User: Fold this.
Amino acid sequence: MKATERSTIATAFQEISKRAVAHVRELKQNKPYILVGAATCGRAAGALDVLKTFREEIKKRNLDCPVIEVGCMGHCYAEPIVIIGKPGYPPVCYGYVNPVIAERLVNEFILGENPCPEFVIGALEANDILPSFQDFPRAKYEQKIILKNCGHIDPTDIEQYIAAGGYTGLAKAIDMPPEAIINEIKKSGLRGRGGAGFPAGRKWQYGRDAKGTTKYIICNADEGDPGAFVDRAILESDPHSVIEGLIIAGYAVGARYGYIYVRAEYPLAVERVGIALKQSKKLKLSGSNILGSNFNFDIRIFQGSGAFVCGEATAMANSIEGKAGTPRPRPPRMTTSGLFGKPTVVNNVKTLAYVPQIIKNGASWFIKTGTKDSPGTAVFALAGKIVNTGMVEVPMGTTLRQIIFDVGSGIPNKKLFKAVQIGGPSGGCLPEASLDLPVDFDSLQNAGAIMGSGGMVICDEDDCMVEIARYFLEFTQRESCGKCTFCRLGTRQMLEILTDFTQGKGKLEDIDNLEKLAEEVKAGSLCGLGQTAPNPILTTLRYFRNEYEEHIKLGKCPALMCQHLIAYYILPDKCERSCDACIGSCTVEAITPNKKRIKVIDQEKCVKCGTCLKACPPQYNAIVKLSPPSEVPK
Amino acid sequence: MERNKQSVNIARIRCKTSYSLTKGSSFARIEAGEDIVTKVNTATNETERQQIIKETGLILNRFARKKQHLIPILQGVQGKLGYLPREAMIEIADYLNMAAVDVYGVVTFYNQFRLNPPGKHSIRVCLGTACHMKGGYITLDAWKRRLKINSGETTPDREFDLDIVACVGCCTKAPVTVVDGNPEGQVEPTRVDGILLGFGHEYGTKDKEKSESN
Assistant:
């Protein structure tokens, strides 16, 4: 590349960046502003009503205060979340906001001088008036690299992203020779965040070295793992970071086209990526002659149609080609013959989101975080029985205990921790003994789980491990594409055995059969789906074998979860004559009072939905679950 | 056209045999005892048929005749018609110059595509890990009980259709049900009744009132 061209790229970007900074300054400086978190998780909690209220209140009072729709900050437990910035105050984050609180915030904080500390979760900066996020125990562990912008910028406004330092990496990359970029990524040790942890730099090198003029990059956003939502949150909150990473990858590999393969189940993500692509094209940051250079790169969105197996690279290629998404045998590798038979590099959303920052700040900056073999941060979606559900980003090497108890604030309702499920249907359940395990690609693999796409579901003492294994098997069995016999029939057989266990029909020798079958399915399947499908069974058998045995020998579910093995029962000496809460709550009218007005459950009618248990007032606590059902007195 | 009709018939036979041969066949949504062939719907009368062909044609015009556009086309047609009737699949096959059985194969492979007409309101129960553990399966049972249909079906009055979805990514609001595209958090059996009542439907309370008046 000639020196003149190099300078034109820098000046072209400087121009764009100057305009963006001016735009944001005009938007936020010297006046109050309101950010409303309205990603899918926020919307489920009613963020759109809050947004509407804010807009109406501001309009009614004729205030100069922009109300900006942003993405997800990661504190999903407190949705809907609102951040209000006002000159003289640090930006303040409010949780559990509803339209009534929204109105009050406008009246008292925007118009008045009362920051309403009763609704505050924390201020974004340390200060003297309000508690700040830095005071939280989680602040000690959290370190945000790819979630940095999430919840702070408007995902539909490219200038806010640029003003936050976005596209600097791209401008720098296009000034570098492609080999230098690949070397930088190699030096950073960035490993694929899709689950397997394959070094991204090496993959790019294969793609670059592959023969052929047409090459493709695919961004894998087919986040099919139930329990994982990091990719969705990033695409909804900060789509430009992924697009920037994709373009850099395209430049490094020498590709002309990029695809973003998003699940159709994420309509908001599809919409926001679409808007982002249009904006980047308008500013000449993607499309032809990017930033005035001679590099052309076009990105298309492809909507997946709801097949888990399409998260596998070769199946994804088939799906984009318009075929059923069944995997292809490897070799040839995707980097040799992938999409339309051309060399193709497939990278996960998170992997690509790291790329711009690595290029911008250098590999040596990146390897400062994390462990030697797994540099950088790990992003997890915390869900299940945990107080602070949401997204967390911690350096690799943080222990599970720190993530669950310090960042996630532990288990709600004073229950005991039982297991943590990592990596979705391909991962495993780790028990309390594994909690001090540092989280990185290799240590999780050794323990029987995988990093996966970052889903971390926490189970407490009320969760049955056999049922969890059955649930995952049901999922993989349903999603198996049917190409390999072992996966197609093996998962079915394993599911049947597990279903028998949860219904109290199991036989002891079936445990051995299950183990044998699991190993065979692992060995006999072509793609990751079949190879990892038995993981939930193998880990639960490894760590919770006694639960299996109790199900089989005693017909008892120790966690009182398996519906066939439990019965609801009202303790006659605890039930209160004058209370009929359970009768009204019962969805199938299975509860009737007897002559003494003590309530009795008709076990024939009962569908075991548990509504009565929740309805029974805590001062009586008269309803219990019994297992096995034969324990109910006649 | 004639050839395509034949191939759809062959597809039906093939599906039947492959199912009966393997019993546990993984053709994704075949549950035990369910006959996939009945799932293909055709237009009931000539005007509906014309309508389907017209709408399908409008979508097809937006795409080049390349096989790689099959899935976007199917998504477009389903977006318009709500489901994929036999006529539409045959039209698409003709347009892309491929056998109808291959279109059918792709349609039945992906969970997103449906072969029966949708109801006025769509109910999607999330069965992701977090939802399952917080009782998503109980919620699904409640929906089934109230609507008196199984997942993948539409109520006879075409008011509601019920289906499951693997995960909508709102794990923090578990158990989630997506009602008409809006994810609703913490949907437990009592909220199922509440949502139905919100639509002005008394699926939830009918039985109760009856037994009270008796």
Notes: Chain A touches chain B through 75 residues (CB under 8 Å).
